[in-house]
Amino acid sequence: IVHAEATRLQSPVPLTAAALQQFISGQALGLSKKDDSSVVQVYETLNGVSVSQSNNKSIGKEGDEVGDYWVFEDGTKERIVEVGDEPQHNVVLKNEFARVLKVTLPGVGSAGKNTTWAHRHAEDSLYFFLVEGGLSVINHVKGNNPQCDCMEFGEVRYGTHKTDKPLVHKITNRNAEEMLCIDAEVLKTPPITSQLPLVADRHELIKTRDRCRVYRLVLEPGQSTTVSYNFFYLSVVLRGSPIKISLGASGPGPVLSWQKTTSMGDEEWCKPSLDMTIMNTGNSIFEQYIAEWR
């Protein structure tokens, strides 16, 4: 506001202009919805030090909670943030049942930093890894030595961060390509669930846990399937293609249809749906995860 008003009045404000650049950097780090004081994290990120700790070593404590400090083997320390406040974890969907974060992390040699901040996962979560050719990372879990970890394209994992214990870690991308992962937190059981697993054409059950089931739907070009999802679910696209969705195609009533263009990493929270026909109208394979909340 000060910079804009000074520009209107043609008044030079060099310090305000410099400060504005730091706030723009804060936006790039995902801090745009935070309090103004969060701009201190820009300085901490650029310099690799904690500004709040620079003059008073007694502030804060070492621990595993958000706001605590992780002290590394070389004596350096880093404040632990909640996963939703980590700049590479962007919240793209949130309701009472699920919070979904899209994780992107630059590759080795890119302009961006390829290591996350120290962050804490406290909810049971599904992870969908979407790097073609596979993903290689260094996973540094607090309390353990850094470990190399590899994920195949399309691999799905489940973390028991609430039913077991929270996860505090840092991730470093070892690939040249950007890391892409969908992190879906299982927050609450929906009002409608299914006791039995889904049995449907072109659907394969690939993972079963106490709080969710995950199916993979695969449609070649021109193929279709008619299915009823008797549960709330999260849709995540693995391989995108144009599709046509129709409701009521096999019933006596009118048919409601629409076209939809999909891309890898698209996510959507869906309510139970009956008698739905999905057709791949494109020229490439369509793959989709159906994650059933239980």
Task: Describe what you observe in this structure.
10% of the residues lie in helices and 40% in strands. The protein starts with a helix and ends with a strand. It is mainly β. It is globular and about 70 Å long. The model is unreliable at 54-58 (pLDDT under 50). It is built from 3 helices and 21 strands. The strands form 5 sheets. The protein has a 5-stranded mixed beta sheet with strand order 3-6-11-8-9, with no helix packed on it. A hairpin with a 5-residue loop joins strand 1 (69-71) and strand 2.
Annotate the secondary structure layout.
Blueprint: H1 2-8, H2 14-28, H3 40-47, E1 69-71, E2 77-79, E3 81-82, E4 89-94, E5 98-105, E6 119-121, E7 125-129, E8 135-141, E9 147-151, E10 156-159, E11 167-173, E12 179-186, E13 203-209, E14 212-219, E15 224-229, E16 233-239, E17 243-247, E18 256-260, E19 267-270, E20 273-280, E21 286-293
Parallel strand pairs: 3-6
Antiparallel strand pairs: 1-2, 4-5, 5-12, 6-11, 7-10, 7-12, 8-9, 8-11, 13-14, 14-21, 15-20, 16-19, 16-21, 17-18, 17-20
Q: In a few lines, what is going on in this structure?
A:
The protein is mainly beta and 294 residues long.
Q: Describe the sheet with the most strands.
A: 5 strands, mixed
Radius of gyration (CA) equals 23 Å
Shape: globular
Q: How many individual β-strands?
A: 21
- Beta strand %: 35-45%
Low-confidence runs: 54-58
DSSP helix fraction: 10-25%
- Oligomeric assembly: single chain
End-to-end separation: 48 Å
Name the strands of the widest sheet in spatial order.
3-6-11-8-9
The assigned structural class equals mainly beta
Number of helices: 3
The run of helices and strands is HHHEEEEEEEEEEEEEEEEEEEEE
- Average pLDDT figure: 91
